[in-house]
Write a structure and sequence with these properties.
Layout lengths: L14 H10 L13 H8 L9 E5 L4 E4 H11 L6 H11 L6 H6 L5 E7 L1 H6 L13 H16 L22 E2 L23 E7 L3 E4 L6 H12 L17 E5 L1 H9 L4 H11 L2 E2 H4 L21 E2 L8 E5 L6 E5 L8 E4 L5
Parallel strand pairs: 3-4, 7-10
Antiparallel strand pairs: 1-2, 3-5, 5-12, 6-11, 7-11, 8-9
Helix pairs in contact: 2-3, 3-7, 4-7, 8-10
């Protein structure tokens, strides 16, 4: 028996009246929702080992308690199947880690959204898509997991546009931002193995990212030529990474399309080789960084060399370039800059969470 404590509300009328009730109270993302009936919420809670009343912590900027029951309600609203709910719970657990800086991600004027990356066997079991068009429509697991996270941030965290969420423009990524890697076409192991997890362990990574920036390269025949183009996209003067990043609290995602990844694999390059090369080639001299729109706002640590010739990369260490392999046919890859004052977090799914 699942013990649920939420208020029971009866809405008279038809499905349109139900949708209107939720919309008028600001409880949606602007799209239709699935009514969170007691039966549906109970089925969602039953999919994880935690009790309905167990709290994962307080979600910024409202600082409301994120109980399993509240997450379940929002997962139902999003259209999740119960079997994907453990991923939603793990994603919320990851975003509550201090290094993720959820308050900053939620309340900034920057167009940033938590990106969910699902790793390991659970991604295949649930049908999380990492192939052609993975960030577009038509993939129920990606769409509903990402949407459940967003609705939780709205309805529990209070990140309503113009209120708790102060984004100047926002981003379509705030509807749903969820993916997995294209393991079958990657020359390397899945990303979570770089963080100490075994390949057969399921895990979730949360990254505070912008919308993707495309890299179109149909001609490069060497890793160096291709990665120079990637590094150029990484090093744009408008990225937050240069100006608001705190020491050890900034990373950047590079999603290699399988054809680009194969170019590196054929040449014998490892993921670490690509990370080191991108870190070095994305560096810019201070003389150029001074032209950026936030240079004078940067509080550099005492003793930092700031002569015109001093070089800085948009991330501090090579391992802060998070290299994934995903997508379908076509010589395109993606750079996803971060909010800057945030760091990605990877957590394991444990016992059903």
């Amino acid at each position: 028996m699942i013990d649920l404590t939420s208020d029971r509300i009866r809405i008279a009328g038809d499905v349109d009246d139900v949708q209107r009730w939720f919309s008028e109270r600001g409880l949606t993302d602007g799209l239709p929702v699935v009514p969170p009936t007691e039966e549906r919420v109970a089925a969602m809670v039953a999919a994880v080992p935690q009790a309905a009343g167990e709290s994962l912590g307080d979600l910024a900027p409202r600082w409301a308690e994120a109980t399993i029951e509240k997450l379940a309600v929002n997962a139902v609203l999003a259209g999740c199947r119960p079997e994907v709910f453990p991923v939603v719970v793990a994603a919320v657990r990851a975003m509550l880690q201090p290094e993720f800086n959820l308050y900053g991600v939620q309340a900034t004027t920057h167009p940033v959204a938590p990106m969910v990356v699902v790793h390991g066997p659970v991604a295949r079991q649930l049908g999380v898509h990492g192939g052609p068009g993975l960030l577009g429509p038509g993939h129920p697991a990606n769409a509903t997991i990402g949407r459940a996270v967003r609705l939780t941030l709205l309805n529990v965290g209070g990140a309503y546009p113009g209120e708790g969420d102060r984004a100047t423009h926002g981003t379509p990524a705030k509807f749903a931002y969820c993916l997995t890697e294209n393991v079958a076409e990657s020359p390397w192991s899945e990303f979570h193995t770089t963080r100490g997890f075994e390949p057969d362990r399921s895990a979730v990574t949360l990254f505070g990212g912008e919308a993707p920036h495309n890299i179109n390269d149909h001609e490069s025949s060497t890793p160096e030529r291709f990665l120079d183009i990637v590094a150029d996209v990484m090093s744009g003067l408008g990225h937050n990474s240069w100006y608001v990043a705190e020491e050890g609290r900034n990373d950047m995602v590079v999603v290699l399309g399988p054809e680009h990844a194969a170019l590196l694999g054929r040449a014998g390059w490892s993921r670490a080789d690509a990370q080191a090369y991108l870190h070095g080639r994305s560096a810019r001299p201070v003389a150029e960084l001074r032209r950026g729109g936030m240079w004078d706002m940067r509080d550099w640590p005492e003793g930092t060399p700031l002569g015109d010739g001093a070089m800085f990369a948009p991330v501090r260490r090579a391992e802060d370039v998070l290299v994934l392999v995903a997508g379908g046919p076509g010589k395109h890859s993606l750079v996803i800059p971060s909010f800057g004052a945030t760091r990605s977090v990877t957590v394991a799914l444990e016992g059903g969470d």
